[in-house]
TrEMBL record:
Its cofactor is Mg(2+); FMN. PANTHER family: HOMO-OLIGOMERIC FLAVIN CONTAINING CYS DECARBOXYLASE FAMILY, PHOSPHOPANTOTHENOYLCYSTEINE DECARBOXYLASE. Catalyzes two steps in the biosynthesis of coenzyme A. In the first step cysteine is conjugated to 4'-phosphopantothenate to form 4-phosphopantothenoylcysteine, in the latter compound is decarboxylated to form 4'-phosphopantotheine. Residues 1-196 are annotated as: Phosphopantothenoylcysteine decarboxylase. Pathway: Cofactor biosynthesis; coenzyme A biosynthesis; CoA from (R)-pantothenate: step 2/5; Cofactor biosynthesis; coenzyme A biosynthesis; CoA from (R)-pantothenate: step 3/5. This is Coenzyme A biosynthesis bifunctional protein CoaBC. GO terms for molecular function: ligase activity. It catalyses: (R)-4'-phosphopantothenate + L-cysteine + CTP = N-[(R)-4-phosphopantothenoyl]-L-cysteine + CMP + diphosphate + H(+); N-[(R)-4-phosphopantothenoyl]-L-cysteine + H(+) = (R)-4'-phosphopantetheine + CO2. In the N-terminal section; belongs to the HFCD (homo-oligomeric flavin containing Cys decarboxylase) superfamily. In the C-terminal section; belongs to the PPC synthetase family. The gene is coaBC. Residues 14-183 form the Flavoprotein domain. The keyword Nucleotide-binding does not apply. Residues 192-407 form the DNA/pantothenate metabolism flavoprotein C-terminal domain.
């Protein structure tokens, strides 16, 4: 939370934006703009080499604050100590392999690394580098060390890198980095640090022919809110997204699927080694028994009936695997139940049938839940507990779910 000023009043959140020497440094300008336009006081601390990509005048103009790169500048203000001491958040974007290594080993050869050593606030790293550098054992060990110490290290995105190369190593979208930072500044606890979570989101589509499908109205907003809040609380997140048209949450591994069978396969593979699985996706209960290989034409005759078969119940399968001691089997299993009537009665029956620890039951319908920015729910637990969540932003509901999950992990 922002540090109060000397009169005890809430102060403007003070953010240190560290910028290391990577081609993605230019994207940090957008991140800086998002901070300043939302009322944050930002001090940019680039490495000297980072200024070869974006110059000091740009950072100063966009932040409205002086830019310092050397511990020997303005020595009377002791910047190598004071900048980190006064920060409410330090975010390094892009964070190169070099800066991650220095931070993990406590090296302090410039102002940025000194700031990282003196900061007692949350620290977020947004790495950007070539795939080979990100996957190198030294980098993986450094990332693990930083996460163990409580820093949030976002996984880089997959996409086009420098030159013709593509792969994992791209800086996440600045807007998504900002969303993580905003939630961290909001006081989210780092109670999921070191935990691996799997989240499903969106709605599956079951093909009738190459053009038509059976689907539902789920937008994926609630599942993505769960992913973003988990990331801000320090978790490593795998997001299995079914037909979602939303930007990838910064730091999440996103696996895109279409049908219920594809979602099942992706979830069962992703939960290997996971601590938690949250099934927030709206999975179709049925699928056509056969898919036409070509578009079904409209003729004078009535169309043939579409014979439906049941899809696997993925949430119930996860619960059954755990009861039987099969692997993979996460410690905490949570599900979502969308109901139109008899909400609590149907929810309690589903909780008993599915074998999960938590079931988030919400009413859906016209302007309720699907595609809306807010949600209300009742969370039922296997031990008989009940938590009512009033209507509010979907990220608030997500945080309550993670509170309940963290209590079971603890």
């Amino acid at each position: 939370m922002p540090t109060p000023d000397q009169d005890g009043l809430p102060a403007v959140p003070r953010v240190v934006l560290g910028v290391s020497a990577g081609i993605a440094a230019y994207k940090a300008c957008e991140l800086l703009r998002l901070f300043t336009e939302s009322g944050h006081d930002v001090r940019v601390v680039p490495t000297r080499e980072a200024l070869r990509f974006v110059g000091e005048p740009t950072w100063a103009a966009l932040s409205g604050n002086p830019v310092t790169v050397d511990v020997w500048e303005s020595v009377h203000e002791v910047p190598h100590v004071r900048i980190g001491q006064g920060a409410d958040l330090v975010v390094v974007a892009p964070a190169t392999a070099d800066v991650l290594a220095k931070a993990a080993h406590g090296l302090a050869g410039d102002l940025l690394t000194n700031t990282l050593l003196t900061a007692r606030c949350p620290v977020v790293f947004a790495p950007a580098m070539h795939t080979e550098m990100w996957e190198h054992p030294a980098t993986r060990a450094n990332v693990a060390t930083l996460r163990e110490r409580g820093s949030i290290v976002l996984d880089p995105a997959v996409g086009r890198l420098t030159g013709a190369d593509s792969g994992r190593g791209r800086l996440p979208d600045p807007k998504e980095i900002f969303e993580v930072c905003r939630r961290v500044l909001g006081g989210r606890p780092a109670d999921l640090a070191g935990r691996r979570v799997v989240i499903s989101a969106g709605g599956t589509r079951e093909a009738i022919d190459p053009v038509r499908f059976i689907g539902n109205r789920s937008s994926g907003l609630q599942g993505y809110a769960l992913a973003r809040t988990a990331l801000a609380r320090g978790a490593e997140v795998t997001l299995v997204a079914a037909n979602v048209a939303l930007p990838d949450p910064a730091g999440a591994e996103v696996i895109r699927v279409e049908s219920a069978l594809e979602l099942r396969a992706a979830v069962l593979e992703a939960v290997e080694g996971a601590d938690v699985v949250v099934m927030a996706a709206a999975v179709a209960d049925f699928r056509p028994a056969a898919r036409s290989g070509s578009k079904i034409k409209k003729t004078a005759a009535d169309p043939d009936a579409i014979h439906l078969v049941k899809n696997p119940d993925i949430l119930a399968e996860l619960g059954e695997r755990r009861r039987e001691g099969l692997k993979p089997s996460p410690a905490v299993i949570a599900g979502f139940a969308a109901e139109t009537d008899d909400v609590l009665a149907n929810g309690r029956a589903k909780l008993a049938r599915k074998g999960c620890d938590l079931l988030v039951v919400n009413q859906v319908g016209e302007n309720l839940a699907f595609g809306t920015p807010d949600n209300a729910a009742v969370v039922l637990s296997a031990d008989g507990g009940r938590t009512d969540i009033p209507r509010g932003p979907k990220e608030a509901l997500a945080d309550t779910v993670w509170d309940l999950v963290a209590a079971r992990l603890g």
